[in-house]
Specification:
Length: 220
């Protein structure tokens, strides 16, 4: 309960920053046997990013559903044997050796799509930090086109295009991200900190996914 109350006092961005410090990082090219990504902090960050996407509104409904389902899939696996799956890399190795990693319902795919969803969120935050006055609809569309659209089928892309009209304006979205005691400068600093922490982790995860030939997979 204490942890929950503390989380309520902080913004999603600040909570995500705290969680990222718990995710061990391995530089690309290092021995994969030494790679370690703890599932709990990773999935918690995904959940916090989900809460940020909620503030964009119905536009993110399809993406939100995918993220939620992928979080649940990994949570169920990790909770089934916490010791065995204390490292998400072990899950990748296991599914790869069994020939299941590329299947539509695999946990490896769930891991891949959660990583791509965070790519989208990071790209969007970068745009808002660089140009706070940028049209929100344009920022969301450009971030989607770069990070998710190349991997989505035409149905998902078409649904996203229609829902773009429901994106809130920039000022509304920024105000939703801020806590009561926060200024815009504080929020901008949080966004910059989150980006600086998350980008290298995502780059490392993508490098690992490529080793297992998952990086180019498209939606089924």
């Amino acid at each position: 309960m204490k942890r929950k109350r503390e989380m309520e006092k902080r913004s999603e961005l600040r909570s995500a920053i705290d969680e990222l410090s718990m995710i061990a990082k391995v530089q690309p090219g290092d021995d994969l046997d030494a790679a370690h990504i703890a599932p709990k902090p990773f999935l918690h960050v995904c959940t916090l990013i989900l809460q940020v996407l909620d503030k964009i509104g119905p536009t993110m409904a399809v993406l939100r559903q995918d993220i939620h389902q992928n979080i649940q899939r990994l949570e169920i696996l990790c909770e089934s044997d916490p010791t065995r799956y204390s490292n998400l890399i072990e899950m990748l190795k296991e599914e790869d050796s069994e020939g299941n990693a590329r299947k539509g319902t695999s946990c490896s795919r769930a891991f891949l799509w959660l990583t791509r969803s965070m790519d989208f969120m990071v790209d969007l935050l970068k745009r808002l930090v660089k140009n706070p006055g940028q049209n929100m609809e344009q920022a969301v569309e450009e971030s989607y086109n770069i990070t998710l659209k190349p991997w989505h089928g035409w149905i998902s892309s078409a649904a996203f295009k229609v829902a773009l009209k429901l994106v809130p304006d920039n000022e509304t979205f920024i105000s939703l991200l801020m806590t009561k005691d926060q200024t815009y400068d504080n929020l901008r600093e949080d966004m910059q900190t989150l980006i600086s922490l998350l980008v290298p982790i995502l780059e490392e995860i993508h490098s690992i996914l490529n080793v297992y030939r998952l990086g180019r997979l498209k939606s089924t």
